[in-house]
Structures
1.
Amino acid sequence: MLELLSFGDRGWGDQLLMGAAMTVAVSVSAFLLGLVFGAAGAAAKLGGNLLLAGLAEVYTTVIRGVPELLVIYLLFFGGSGMVMAVARVFGYDGYVEVNAFTIGVVAVGLISGAYSTEVIRGAVQAVPHGQIEAAKACGMGRWLILRRVLVPQTLRFALPGLGNVWQLTLKDTSLISVTALAEIMRMAHVAAGSTREPFLFYATAAVLYLILTSVSTAVFERAERHAMRGVRRA
Amino acid sequence: MKKTVAALAFGAILAIAVSPAAAQDKWSKIRIATEGAYAPWNATAPSGELIGFEVDLARELCRKMNAECQILAQDWDGIIPALQQGKYDVIMAGMSITDERKQVIDFAGPYGSEPTAFATIKGSALAGMTFDLKGVDLATVEPQEQQILDALAKALEGKTVGVQTSTIQANFMERLLPQVRMRTYGTLDEAGIDLVNGRLDAMLGDRSAAQEIVKKEESLTMFGPNFVRGVLGEGVGAGLRQRDQDLKAKLNAAIAEANGDGTIARLSEQWFGYDISVK
Amino acid sequence: MNWQLMWDSLPTLLSGLPLTVQLVALAEVLGLGVAMGTALMRLSTSRIADAVARAYVFVFRGTPLLVQIFLIYYGLGQFPVIRESVLWVFLREPYWCAVLALMLNTGAYTSEIIRGAILSVPHGQMEAARACGMSRFLMFRRIVAPIAVRQALPAYGNEVILMVKASSLASTITLLEITGLARRLIAQTYAVFEIFILAGAIYLALNFLITRLIRFAEWRLTPYLRARA
């Protein structure tokens, strides 16, 4: 039975491993894209512009209130159409194909971004106001305050929360298997159906995910320790 | 929604890295979708490669049309919407030509034909049933054929039958055996797993695809007559968008050629062990 | 956008609401029990109990729910031992497989919420309670539980919302809750957008309602934080 997991043309081992690589690629891209959305969302919520704050609120509420599966389906079936509509605005009239990888990254990135927004917003707010006043008193400009005071501390405060968002993002990529992108879950699903050995393949998929989540937990813990190195402990 | 569109503007930037599709008017490049989970029609090999009768046939047809072919996998339950969204140009996935589907897409072909049949667990009461007829033509149901349907309805009372979602077999159950409990699965393989597990009493599928599962599972057997036509449609064809009539003409010509020179019969022998071509 | 189709599909989709609510409610109630047990095991002095609880939380938080559902539904059913056991009465039904998967999943997450909440109870308060001569049980009932519940409520609210969303995965094992019905409708009408947007709106409304309920519960439980009129 274990030969089903072997490498080469007879077994599914290499397919599953390539699936794991794809999962990592999608997760990392989606998480980074989510950070961009998250930073923009947090800026909009804290920026004071009511319209932008409202839009950001709608974004986080809708994405966090609707099943991920629906978000992915909508983008999968509508992604090309929306991109073409945008392209038309810029004067390009042809057909634009958006591949499954891009759709997966954008869909999971949107979801990830909604959670990142809240984490980043909370972290920015956690920076003591007195420090910003002190920086102003020292004559620092807005940009300098952002670079020297706000961003370094926000990153440190946001790190644990972003670690959670990363785990969420990693696990959400399993849902893009419905778009036939060859990540772990898709390969396990195809293999389970074709060999009629569901336990073997879903258990293998579970182990692969556990490895990925454990490794990334360790990485985030290291990063947190690194970020905390200048902080006095009680 | 606005936010989504704005976000997708970002996606558009990403999409620049993505190939703009080939010019649609020439059909020098054709993207063909299959399910990859409906052996022997189409399946996925352990190497990850798509294989099966339709994959080979698609390559032959493209050769005859002098077109470059890209064959990709798509889950069955989204296969028609994704065609309409332009993710590919042709569906070759054991899809029967039916009136319902013709309302939203068009078909070239048919290039093959297989009856629908039940599978069940060996030794069960269903497996022991005997029928006077080997085949039932649902386009013209005669009294003797009606008796068979009535007998089936009675035998399946209180039982659960598994089918693949949005298939002609699901339509069959809804129209002809509405009182029987039906459970729908994403793939026929999943229904097969549940039949072996005992969650289902029977499974209804394309005969060859059901047989492929029965062959691999000792505990299963086929039963009942073969059903054709009527609610089951007019053979398996290549699905395409209604506006692509030029592609339909090209595909029809290629299918006719493949029929004429024995390509379809040869591939059919190779994958099914018998001839499924439409004469 | 075909509004007529959306309007016509609404009753069908809403007919899946009871099943969605049922799945979530059952999973939450049973999951809460699992979570309490797990949290107590994690806080107990027994090394073995702690290790078992740790392993359970690690596995269920470290893998996607989709894998868990497939593993329970298709994976367990593969073994004759299980099919011949009493468990099969439940595992035979997709409904109970979904409840089991959701319950174990939420149990793992919730146990961490509960553990954190119990640890957040200030030590001084417990010492004071002990000094007043309270028994362990009385102390738990009067001091630890009320403080922990208040502490856990916002995070628990988020967990319930996540479960509502997660219940949509029950559609992958043939259950016809909101998402399952939506997929079936799409198979019949091919109107992906109309139906998924409508389904999304139903989930959004349900989650809005739950958020309000949790906020209300928080408000009720924290009278001392309200400004005195």
Note: Residues 126 and 157 of chain A are 7 Å apart (CA to CA).
2.
Amino acid sequence: MAATKTTTKPSANGTASKAETTAKNERLAVLKTYKIYINGQFPRTESGRYYTIKLSNKEQVNVCLSSRKDFRNSVSAAREAQEKWAGKTAYNRSQILYRIAEMLETRRAQFTEELVNQGASAAAAKEEISIAVDRLIYYAGWCDKFNQVFSSVNPVSSSHFNFSSLEPTGVVAAIADQNSRLLGLVSIIAPVIASGNTIIALASTQFPLSAITFAEVLNTSDLPAGVVNILTGEVSELLVPFTTHMDVNAVYINTNNQQDKVTAETNAALNVKRVKVEASIDWTLPKNEDPYRILDYTEVKTTWHPIGI
Amino acid sequence: MNTTLKSYDPRFTPPVDQVSVEERCARFTTRSIKKSTKVNGLKLAMSMIDLTTLEGKDSEGKVRQLCYKAMHPHDAMPGIPQVAAVCVYPTMVKVAKKALKGSAINVAAVATAFPSGMAPLQVKLDDTHYAVEEGADEIDMVISRGKFLQGEYNFVFDEIAAVKEACGKAHLKVILETGELSTLDNVRKASDLAILAGADFIKTSTGKIQPAATMPVTLVMLEAIRDYYYATGKMIGMKPAGGIATSKLALHYLVMVNETLGAQWLNPDWFRFGASKLANDILMQLMKEQTGNYQSLNYFSND
């Protein structure tokens, strides 16, 4: 990362002055602490544990190894925030999602560098960020449209006006695609919150940096605290709390592991959570963004309204 | 403290060191209470709760529902103790008494123009008489904070003594409303005054004023009880009320009682929690210990 670079640049006349070189070399590196994102704040994990990631620029970064208690705290925050978030107008949610896209766009340079440091090629990093921004705008657009498109007036053979509309499921716990640096996380958060759900997302274990930097974007985007909470850590440790917590209404698990799928589905039956298990996919493909990803975390409410009496 | 006096003299009340009180309180939160100890602690806390509903919109149905909750905290999980008492307005005492018939749960009534206490003495006494006649086992009275802050200690003393007399056999809890007393020194003075005037319990707050119960305020009151016990050998009960909504905080309070007064105060006869949300949080924690899964309020009755 830029902050740690201590290389000397030639001065204006082409030769580095000795004093300038020494001064630059003596400056201590200022490294960013990557912390988790709960309830609009950046705490360290309550467990105090961390794991270390080696970056392609030879730096090492310590990342929070979140515990089940961090998850518990996140669920409390998400539950607290859910009703208010769902109570905002769809148009306002749309504006906020668009704002997230704007903020991500302005941080393009930082994200590019981070993605490259985590092993992406410069071209791939640029493409990934562009798609992430576009994807946020895509779902921002759907916020105040999916209900019109997918609600229905149902013909019934009695004197009732019968209609169905969509409501958010509630609190969603998601384990993001472990092979994606940024796009997998963005592509799951955006459709979940578009309809008024709140989310606790576990970032990729091996690529957690851009997830935390994305949390900084969220934190400066008028998104109310608790709507999105991002943890870093191990899937093996957090899969069980994610799927057993009684106050979670739906889970999204991205895994290629058949046993994880079985565990998720079995545990989710405890309080009949909605479950979506998906294998790791190429998130850059346009086919992996569609409004049905919003529908996965909504409930259909059907109303029978008497008429003609 | 001079305990032979028939009135209250503030000169005998020791000053309170706020800094050390706060530091001491911070220590109580560092005890590690896990597994079976935690379960036992939570069950003890449950048995100390005064399940409370004190709202202008209270109805008979709401009170009956609360009484049912008091007797059946969570039938899905056997072995949960019932709460100590149900705390209601005087007009609801009869309803609560009837609903709790056959159980060991007491009915506490707030009297004396709760929560402000702004009424003439005769009205307060009538209020108390009424609640006792309706069958209240415990009376929660409020002191006249205005008079107390003006330094009219004798007025407050006489009022408490008069209400105590009106209580007859009912236990008297004296609410200091510490949120309006401004300083810990005042809290200590009011505690000493209430104890000398005949309180069976001293209680922090009505729950209608913020801040309600806090750990420093409770510690100062516990120390007043402790000093009175050393001087006379008589035990006085303590009831923090309002703002204690989580199991963890309840355990911190139990630690504080144990380390300030000792284990003989650790039962519902001498220590109570005035709370309405705490019960469900304790139930969720107990269920979590039993099943291993974090719980949701959706699966516990409101009241």
Note: Residues 139 and 172 of chain B are 5 Å apart (CA to CA).
